[in-house]
Amino acid sequence: MKKCVLFSIAALSAVLAFAGDHVLWYDSAAEDSMKGWEERSLPIGCGWFGVNVFGGVPSERLQVTEPTLLTRRNLTNALDIRLNFPKHAAWWSAKNYRRDLTLETGVATVSYTFDGVDFKREYFTSYPARMLVMRLTASKKGALAFDLQPEVPFQRQFGIGKEAWIGREGHLKAEGNFLDVTQRLQWHNVRFFGRFAVVTDGKVTTLDHTLEVADATEATVYFSCGTNYRLCPESFGAAAGEFSGEADEPKMRDEDEPSEAVKARVAAAVAVGYDAVKRAHLADVGGMMRRVDLDLGAADADRLKPTDKLLAEHAQGRASAYLEETYFQYGRYLLVSSSRPGTLPASLQGVWTAYDKSPWGSGYWHNVNVQMNYWPAFVGNLAECFEAYAAFNAAFRPVTRRFAAKYLTDRGIGNVPADGEAPDIWCVGTAVYPYAVCGGPGGHSGPGTGGFTTKCFKDWWDFTRDEKALKQYVWPTLHGMADFLTRCVVETNGLWLSAFSASPEQVRYLPQGGWEYVTTVGCAFDQQMIHENNADTLELAKILGVKDAVTAKIEKQLGKYEPVIVGESGQVKEFREEKKYGEIGEYRHRHISQLVGLYPGTIINKNTPAWMAAAKYSLTERGDESTGWALAHRLNCWARLGDGEHCHLLLGNLLSKRTNANLWDMHPPFQIDGNFGATSGVAEMLIQSHAGFIDLLPALPKAWAAKGAYKGLCARGAYEVDCAWADGKPVSVTVRAKKAGLAKPQVRFADKPCAFDFVSK
Ligand code: FUC
Prior knowledge:
It is a single chain. By secondary structure, the protein is an alpha+beta fold. Among the domains are: 31-241 and 268-289, putative glycoside hydrolase family protein from bacillus halodurans (Beta-galactosidase, Chain A, domain 5, Distorted Sandwich); 365-574, Glycosyltransferase, CATH 1.50.10. It is built from 20 helices and 32 strands. It has a 9-stranded antiparallel beta sheet, covered by helices on one side. Strands 2-3-4-5-10-15-14 form a 7-stranded antiparallel beta sheet. A hairpin with a 3-residue loop joins β27 (707-715) and β28. Residues 1-19 and 239-246 have low confidence and may be disordered. The structure holds alpha-L-fucopyranose. Alpha-L-fucopyranose binds at residues 348, 360, 365, 367, 369, 505, 590, 627, 629, 667, 671.
């Protein structure tokens, strides 16, 4: 008890205000550098665009990412907003500095005291208003003064030929209370428009490209932006990523220029005012975030510690349940902030990049990364976040039809669809960008990438039983992929094996030096994902009453894919040719592609104990050290194996070795998939539902066993589950049907039926 005395009243009241919520907070600003951006800036976002808050005292930097602002396969920093506070140049005189982000509200604040006056900046990005709102206040009348000064980074002259892809120009125009930003990126003819509007009780002066606010007590700055990007098959280009030159690259249309829409949004926000815009934002983000509560028994004292200190303690072996809860909710927060109906999906960096050329172009990588982004969506009660990916996938699918044909032709597989046949056939290789699909499977990743993708769609249906989504997206996506995958296999000794096959990015080191990707026939990744896709498609065909050439083919081939083979070491064989574990490929490769049937797939489950044992062997040999997302995939797999201690170890490794002070996951560099995969991994520790029943607390570690609870995690069959536990056993369980007419599900704990309250709809 005595210890409480150590906490200052100010710190305590700050905590009470956030009771129950999860807050990232720091007692210093992020350094104004790439390192500061990656490690310490705080991300807010509304799917349409993302913003990183640095929180400097003399000069605030708010870095804006607009996900369609690409310079040929490279997402680039859209804008840096500077708020300069000339009167606070002596930043070291600032007291009580705090910078925070509350996950349940999506509001970031920066506050400090200067010359006895309390200054506060509040920031949020509203999805309904498509707006960044900056609210600045001073505790003393007229003490607030700042300049608003945006900068368009990385401008370059327009070029010709190979130089054209970097051409970028930006213009600023300040007039009255408005400041407009126009940009043009040459390569895809991207036109960007952004508008700021300042509403204040002080004076606003226009100076060149700056708005100066003086003698104010409060000021609200609204900012919205957009581009002329259109999500449709034509935007993916005639050559769709075959790198054949500028002529084949899509160009956006001048007539879709976004300025009128942006101006209208800003005018609407100004008209309704700050309170109304904020209310709508809180209802939106709060509504989604508060669907799920997780209580792992966090210590109140941990709420009082800055996030970077908690993280440092965690790395030294003092696990913090509060940090673990926060990290779990952060994955949900990042998805809510980066992927919404109507926006682009969450990319490799979500919707945040400050780079000129971001790592892997901030693309959508289909051999694990983009799927991982959506693993927490369904179990985490955020199904609508997946709509952005579903719409994106629907837009690029038609473009891949000819890649599917080319893939089959190039490899002499036959089965090439004739014109008019197989209207929804599609395929996916690895990289897709907003303006390009980079070919079909091949190289380092086999056609199983498609089954890996359709798994998300099957989960969408399973977790929601949303019939509209089933007809509009789920069925055509699975069916078209089944059409492709059933053609990719050839009959070999009674089995149907992927004629070209590659376990994503597995390499073989050559005796003469160097390395090559391992390519083969029928490796586990492809066979498992072909099996899962085909089985899922057949299940849906039965629901929809469809019988056609594709389902006939599946019926002929399913059961002959041999998705799992146990090898001489007792491992799940990654390659058919392998006898002992690790004979072929890197022993501790980051990808665990031979285990995709364990997670996110379902064929390796409690009903297949021999395969579970083999999966455990392979996972153990693969090791607990890897890149961020690779640890997250391992975490999900260990949860499926029911090993809570191993899960907790991996969660610890992620937090202590692959997590920045702002809790962003590090591949390295920053890649958001690890955040999302970690969130789904924690959920998998607490609830699973892939084996025909709801399995409660399947991988609860000792550290969380004494007492805890969750509310609102989801299960297949369209149920929401609340569960409180003590001494590692459920003490109160409620299952709510999300749709009318659903039957009571089977619920188990430790393989035995478990009592629960059922609430039908
Ligand atoms: C896959 C991974 C890499 C990286 C890249 C973006 O290719 O193998 O590790 O995450 O995607």
